[in-house]
Design brief:
This protein is mainly α. It has one domain. The protein is built from 3 helices and no strands. Helix 2 runs antiparallel to helix 3. The longest helix has 24 residues. 22% of the residues are buried.
């Protein structure tokens, strides 16, 4: 179980870095659904890993990060935008 949750955490970190890198190099839109999904999955993955390791500040940060991603995706869905 430790190895699985470590892998989930590393996947989350990789997704967040990938998304940030793609937006920073203008290869992906920061206001599009793809970026928001990458951030949502990354933050949830890191939240799971952080909670398992009792790293509560990190878990809390990633909970808020995930909530922001959900709100952004709902907004995009309402607008019918899928960039």
């Amino acid at each position: 179980m430790d190895l699985l949750l470590a892998a989930v955490g590393w996947l989350g970190a990789a997704l967040l870095l990938f998304g940030y890198g793609m937006v920073s190099t203008s290869r992906m839109s920061g206001d599009g659904a793809r970026y928001q999904v990458i951030n949502l999955v990354g933050s949830v993955s890191l939240m799971i890993n952080s909670a398992y390791n009792a790293a509560w500040p990190s878990a809390g940060l990633n909970l808020v990060w995930a909530a922001i991603g959900i709100v952004a995706l709902v907004k995009l869905a309402r607008l019918g935008i899928a960039k």
